[in-house]
Specification:
This protein is of the alpha/beta class and 247 residues long. A four-stranded mixed beta sheet has the order 1-2-3-4, with helices on both faces. The protein contains eight helices and four strands, in the order H-E-H-E-H-E-E-H-H-H-H-H. The protein folds into two domains: 3-167, Roll (Diaminopimelate Epimerase, Chain A, domain 1); 188-246, no CATH class. Strand 1, helix 2 (50-67) and strand 2 form a beta-alpha-beta unit. It starts with a helix and ends with a helix. The relative contact order is 0.12. The protein has helices spanning 3-25, 50-67, 84-95, 131-147, 151-167, 188-210, 212-231, 234-246; strands at 41-43, 70-76, 105-111, 116-121.
C-alpha cells in the first residue's frame, strides 16, 4: 500500500474514532476521548505518512528495548474544550507509559489544530527531563519544525534529544521479564475487542446516518481497510469487514 493510501486510511480511521468518541464524550461533558494505546505513535490526524510513522515507531522501540524507558507520541486535532495540560494528564493516567516500578515514561501530545504541544514526564525521569528542558525542547525543536511543516522531523529530533537525556540517567537496565505498564506488544487481545466493538458500534452509527445498505458497505470498507492497514493481513481485514457489514 502506498504512503498516500496509508495516510488516507489513517485519516479515515481517525475520523471514525473521533466520531465514536463524540458519542461517549457526551456523558463526560463533551471532552475529547482518550484513544486506546495500540502503538508508540498514535496519529489521529493523518499528518504522518506510513513511512514516517514506521520510522518513529522503530526509533522508539529500539530505545525501549535498549534502555527500558518508554516514549509515546499522540497527535490529535484538538483537546478543546479541555486545555492540553489536563488532556495529557488523562492520557498519561490511561496509558501508564513507563515501567511500573520506575515510572520512566514520557508522553508527547500534539494538538495540531490548537498549535499546542505538551511533554509529560514520569517521576523517574524528572531529573533527566525537568519541566524547563521539556519546554525548551518544545520551543526550540518542535515548534520551529512544525511551523515549517516538518512534523516527522520535529518529532524525531525531539525524541532524539530526550533519549540522550535519558541515557545520562542512572536507571536499571531492562529485563526480559519486566514489562512496561503500557506494553504495546501485550495489547493484541485489547485490540481485537476494540476492533469488534468499533465494527458493531461504528456500523450501527453509519447505517443510521446513510441507510442500511450503503451504511453497511461503508462500515465494511472502513473496518476492512483499517484492519489491513494495522495488521497487514487480508484475512483479518476480510473478517473485520464482514463483521462490520453484517452487524
Amino acid at each position: 500500500m502506498s504512503d498516500l493510501a496509508r495516510a488516507g486510511w489513517r485519516a479515515i480511521l481517525g475520523l471514525l474514532m473521533l466520531a465514536l468518541a463524540s458519542f461517549a464524550g457526551a456523558a463526560e461533558g463533551d471532552l475529547v476521548a482518550v484513544p486506546p494505546l495500540a502503538a508508540r505513535v498514535t496519529d489521529l490526524t493523518g499528518t504522518l505518512n506510513g513511512a514516517q510513522q514506521a520510522q518513529l515507531e522503530q526509533q522508539l522501540a529500539a530505545f525501549e528495548q535498549a534502555r527500558g524507558s518508554q516514549i509515546a507520541i499522540l497527535i490529535v486535532p484538538t483537546t478543546q474544550p479541555e486545555a492540553i495540560e489536563q488532556y495529557s494528564i488523562r492520557v498519561a493516567e490511561a496509558w501508564k507509559i513507563g515501567r511500573r516500578k520506575h515510572d520512566d515514561g514520557v508522553l508527547v501530545v500534539v494538538a495540531k489544530n490548537d498549535r499546542k504541544m505538551r511533554i509529560d514526564v514520569g517521576y523517574g525521569l524528572e531529573g533527566a527531563i525537568p519541566d524547563a528542558l521539556a519546554k525548551r525542547i518544545i520551543g526550540e525543536t518542535l515548534a520551529p519544525k512544525f511551523k515549517a511543516g516538518d512534523f516527522a522531523g520535529g518529532l524525531s529530533a525531539a525524541v532524539t534529544q530526550m533519549q540522550k537525556l535519558i541515557e545520562g540517567e542512572a536507571l536499571p537496565a531492562p529485563r526480559a521479564a519486566e514489562r512496561p505498564q503500557g506494553g504495546f506488544e501485550g495489547n493484541l487481545e485489547e485490540l481485537l475487542v476494540l476492533g469488534l466493538t468499533l465494527s458493531v458500534v461504528g456500523g450501527s452509527i453509519l447505517r443510521a446516518i446513510f441507510g442500511r445498505l450503503f451504511g453497511s458497505m461503508l462500515a465494511g470498507g472502513l473496518v476492512g481497510g483499517a484492519g489491513w492497514f494495522i495488521t497487514g493481513s487480508m484475512v483479518v481485514a476480510g473478517i473485520g469487514g464482514l463483521i462490520a457489514f453484517i452487524f
